[in-house]
Amino acid sequence: MVNCNGELIAEDKAIFTYNNRAFKYADALFETVRYVNGTLFFWEDHYFRLMASMRILRMEIPMEFTLEFLEEQIKETITANGLENGAVRVRLSVFRNEGGLYTPSTNQVSYLIETSVMESPFFTIDDGSYEVELFKDYYVNKDMLSNLKTTNKILHVVAGVYARENGYANCLLVNTDKKVVEAINGNLFLVKGNEIKTPPLGDGCLDGIIRKNLMKLIAGSEEYDLVEESISPFELQKVDELFITNSIVGIQPISKYRKKEFHTKVAKSLVGKLNAKARIGA
């Protein structure tokens, strides 16, 4: 079952028409949230990012779109699918309603909630092979729209095809200044000694929820120094560790980039702290 505007609908039932603006113009936002046994990880952060993004895109925020209302709708959808006692991947999509061409005829929105089963209830570290390469065919723009989690991900899709065709687990994306910005599916962190570095939002990376919370953990730690600076491709082979973050995987270590192989020491030290932070919703 999926939830469309509060109505639970069978997954095989048609919901949208050909005039859907998410389909025609990628006029939509989405949040991907991890749910475990009654808890939506970092739900407040997801909610406030969604509200801020809707304002930036000039979408009209319905009066009922409160933190509590959307959480209730998500949990009702999870329960309807019999998943309330497990680990669930939730996707909440918000799209502008039908009407208009490039210029919409309305700013009112609809929403869709999808759920799927996950294997692990907590973030874990995968020690397996995870080789990446730079994707340089197209570039991420250095603007606020790049920070938003919109459905306009064609650059990431093409990078994903490139990765699959060339046997890579993922690709790292670069912006118009040729700085490394992020991975296809998450934010990027570099580790060298006690310094942990990640690109700034001004470089065009996604304003990621795990990125935000991990930066708080690192900044409050006595073990590591947090640096938010642009990353040159030349730095990638000079660091001790690379890892990717997103709301579903948590932390994904990169094992190899070109001739350089990386360890996972820092990633392993941070994942436990991230799990603890997620559980208490801090």
Would you kindly provide a written description of the structure presented here, covering whatever features stand out?
The chain is of the alpha+beta class and 282 residues long. The strands form 3 sheets. It has a 6-stranded antiparallel β-sheet with strand order 2-1-6-5-3-4. Strand 3 and strand 4 form a beta hairpin.
Main attributes of the structure:
single chain, 282 residues, alpha+beta, D-amino Acid Aminotransferase, Chain A, domain 1, D-amino Acid Aminotransferase, Chain A, domain 2, 2 domains, six-stranded antiparallel sheet, five-stranded mixed sheet
Question: Which CATH top level class of the largest domain fits?
Answer: Alpha Beta
Main β sheet profile? 6 strands, antiparallel
Give the SSE order as H and E letters. EEHEEHHEEEHHEEEEHEEEEEH
Shape: globular
CATH architecture of the largest domain: Alpha-Beta Barrel
CATH topology assignment of the largest domain = D-amino Acid Aminotransferase, Chain A, domain 2
Number of helices: 7
Proportion of beta-strand residues: 25-35%
Distance between the termini: 31 Å
The secondary structure category is alpha+beta
* Cα-based radius of gyration, to the nearest Å: 19 Å
Q: Any idea how many domains?
A: 2
Strand order of the largest sheet: 2-1-6-5-3-4
Helix content: 25-40%
Mean pLDDT: 96
> Can you say what the CATH homologous superfamily of the largest domain is?
D-amino Acid Aminotransferase, subunit A, domain 2
Low-pLDDT residue spans:
none
